[in-house]
Amino acid sequence: MLAVPLPGAEEALANATYEALLWSLSRPGQLRSLPGTDPAQAHALIIASLLDRECSVFCADPLLMPLVARTGAMLTELPRAGFAFLGGHAELAMLDELACGSDLYPDDGATALLEVRHNGGQGLRLSGPGIDGAITVQIDGLPAGFWEKRRELIRYPMGFELYLIDGLQLMGLPRSTTVEVL
User: Fold this and answer.
1) Which of 3, 37, 112, 166 stands 20 to 30 A from 149 (CA)?
2) How far apart are CA 53 and CA 154, in angstroms?
3) Comparing C-alpha atoms, which of 87, 79, 84, 89 is closest to residue 50?
4) Distances from the Cα of 95 to the Cαs of 67, 112, 151, in angstroms?
5) How far apart are CA 101 and CA 109, in angstroms?
6) pLDDT for position 90
7) Residues 6 or more apart from 97 whose CB is under 8 A from it?
8) Are 94 and 162 in contact, with CB atoms under 8 Å apart?
9) Preceding omega of 157 cis (within 30 degrees of 0)
């Protein structure tokens, strides 16, 4: 008889977080709850679930730096980062530095994680794969011109993924999602 080890509590939490991250990218514009009860732990859950020694990371938030360092991930400059934890420190110029991949390797595009406020602020109409027709959302807390700059930079299949985090609420926007400012 084959014995399979049962996941511990930490592994189960990382698995549930990873599932929420994948689900949010496959259903752009829909909010997904991260596991747990403490909104202050959202980034810690994501870091534990996504990062390991083979990841390259840029971290703009000094409060997250110890969590990132504990994973063993390689800290690097923004243009070389596979993951960019921008927190609430996103500046428009940072988007210009995000890796967008190349014609041969579009999968080298970065994944950026930003803190926002859902259900308030600027109205957006989203369309593309994973969205039935179009969906309207409201997002606040990003620099002026953010969505226009994103549109300029993404030349699908090249581009970058976005995770927009508000406490334990998560919204994923893959590079294939078209964003229209309302």
Assistant:
1) 166
2) 28
3) 84
4) 23, 9, 11
5) 4
6) 84
7) 77, 78, 79
8) no
9) yes
Q: Are 60 and 86 in contact (CB under 8 A)?
A: yes
CA distance 50 to 73: 10
Q: Which amino acid is at 180?
A: E
Question: 116-157, pLDDT tens digit by residue?
Answer: 999 998 999 999 999 999 999 999 999 999 999 999 999 999
Residues with pLDDT less than 50, the chain: none
Output the pTM of the full model: 0.93
Is 98:146 a contact under the CB 8 Å cutoff? no
The per-residue pLDDT for 105 is 94
The H-or-E segment that residue 171 falls in is strand 169-173
Residue with structure tokens 């399979």? 4
d(Cα 101, Cα 106) in Å, to the nearest integer?
4
CA 143 vs CA 1, 79, 121: distances in Å = 57, 20, 12
Region at 64 (left for phi over 0; alpha for psi -120 to 50; beta for the rest): alpha
Buried b / exposed e across 46-66, counting CB within 10 Å, b at 16+?
A: bbbbbbeeebbbbbbbeebee
Q: Please give the pLDDT value at position 175.
A: 96
